[in-house]
Design brief:
about 450 residues, alpha/beta, Rossmann fold, Helicase, Ruva Protein, domain 3, five-stranded parallel sheet, about 50% helix, elongated, Homeodomain-like_sf, nucleotide-binding, Sigma-54-dependent Fis family transcriptional regulator, Sigma_54_int_dom_CS
Length: about 450
């Protein structure tokens, strides 16, 4: 059962809060002074603190509450604190929220708003605790991997990204082609860089080509080169990317956009290492390892005749899947902190917003949102509204991407041997959220 500490010298307020919280299965302990409140914090597991701003009968400045909050926040920086304040202390309460308080409520408070705020903060705190617990386990694996291999500065905490990076390091020393699949902006290029950095040709050329960004009429010349006069505008000889990557690695991003004529030539290079520049009959030979990436369903494109089946199996000797950010919830906050200026912080509400959003644009979208918020925030503390993400969009994307059905929950429980914390993390939920869905679907605990 969740437990809240109420620090208030008014017994009537403490009793009212205790009755209100008990209706939602939340236990309350009460301290009638700051000193007793700090003592109870040392000896009781507390999920949240609700504190008054004044404790002496002749004091209305709110300074006592200010001092108490600073003491709590210094000793327990991750513990959410809600301030109960009168209108006269509103300005100070706002300043304390900027300094790290979770929220403030004016007396008399709105029961519905208070319960909603408390539930959200407790759920976020549980998620943070679960994350820290699992991160401590994963960090050992991640540290071991990072000590053995060059991970190219990849920021991650999720099990899924750890698995992708582990596979990348395992196949790095081989010269076989690798196909990296996953949505746009999810980190496929980081996987390619990791493969190259740990390969036997790490000191050789590493040439990147974004096929989707090149005009179709220039693709073949870009990849295979062209002689002067081979086409309109070709005033001088062009060295292709395959020649530039000779002896090293060529990374072909968005390989699904390669036209069929280019696919035939690519297949030949993979089979024989041979090709001709456009406008030339001279056969050239290279030794290049090819890593490709796509966000497209290539098997579906094979069915529609847009992608060659023989090329697919040449490219897909090893496939590394990169999960979307919505399925790597553990990566969201570490990435957000990485993209933020060092002197900025996130409010609790901002963290909750980041974790609830489905990130259809993945890591690239997260980076843009954080940079925008850092510029537009009124101070060094970033609030949820600074992200420019609408509530409606959060709700829609969360339903689309994060709402597991009964079968998904049963599968996650089975895969994690009924470990609620691990199953919840796999589904992108907190423990309490998973429990509620298990009750909804009548899944035995």
């Amino acid at each position: 059962m969740n437990q809240i500490l109420v620090i208030d010298d008014n017994q009537g307020i403490a009793t009212a809060l205790e009755v209100l919280f008990s209706l939602y299965d939340i236990e309350t302990i009460h301290a009638d002074s700051p000193e007793k409140g700090l003592f109870l914090l040392q000896s009781n597991p507390v999920d949240l603190v609700v504190q008054d701003m004044n404790f002496s009968e002749d004091t209305t400045s709110g300074e006592e509450g200010h001092i108490l909050f600073n003491q709590i926040h210094t000793a327990y920086p991750d513990l959410p604190v809600i301030l109960l304040t009168a209108w006269g202390n509103l300005e100070m309460a706002v300043e304390l929220v900027k300094a790290g308080a979770a929220d403030y409520l004016t007396k008399p408070w709105d029961d519905n708003k208070l319960i909603t705020t408390v539930k959200n903060l407790i759920e976020l705190g549980q998620l943070r605790q679960q994350t820290n617990s699992m991160l401590s386990q994963k960090s050992n694996q991640a540290n071991e991997l990072a000590n053995q291999y060059d991970l190219c500065g990849t920021i991650f905490s999720s099990q899924r990204m750890l698995q992708s990076l582990t596979m990348a390091t395992q196949v790095a020393h081989s010269d076989i082609p690798v196909l990296i699949t996953g949505p746009n902006g999810s980190g496929k290029e980081k996987i390619a860089e990791t493969i190259q950095a740990n390969s036997s040709v790490k000191d050789k050329p590493f040439v990147k080509v974004n096929i989707g960004a090149l005009p179709v009429e220039l693709l073949e010349a870009e990849l295979f080169g062209a002689e002067a006069g081979a086409f309109t505008g070709a005033a001088k000889k062009r060295i292709g990317r395959f020649e530039s990557a000779d002896g090293g690695t060529l990374f072909l991003d968005e390989i699904g956009n390669l036209p069929l004529s280019g696919q035939i030539k690519l297949l030949r290079v993979l089979q024989t290492g041979e090709f001709e520049r456009l406008g030339s009959s001279e056969t050239r030979k290279v030794n290049v390892r090819v890593i490709s990436a796509t966000n497209a369903d290539l098997l579906e494109e094979i069915k529609t005749g847009q992608f060659r089946e023989d090329l697919y199996y040449r490219l897909n000797v090893i496939e590394i899947k990169v999960a979307p950010l919505s399925q790597r919830v553990d990566d969201i906050l570490p990435l957000a902190l990485h993209f933020m200026p060092d002197d900025h912080t996130l409010s609790h509400d901002a963290e909750r917003t980041l974790l609830n959003y489905a990130w259809p644009g993945n890591v690239r979208e997260l980076e843009n949102v954080i940079k925008r918020a850092s510029l537009l925030a009124k101070n060094k503390r970033i609030e949820a509204e600074d992200f420019g993400i609408s509530v409606e969009k959060i709700e829609v994307t969360q339903r689309q991407s994060n709402e597991p059905d009964k079968a998904m929950i049963i599968q996650a429980l089975a895969e994690n041997k009924n470990n609620i914390s691990q199953a919840a993390k796999q589904l992108g939920l907190s423990r309490q959220s998973l429990y509620r869905r298990m009750d909804k679907f009548s899944i035995p605990k």
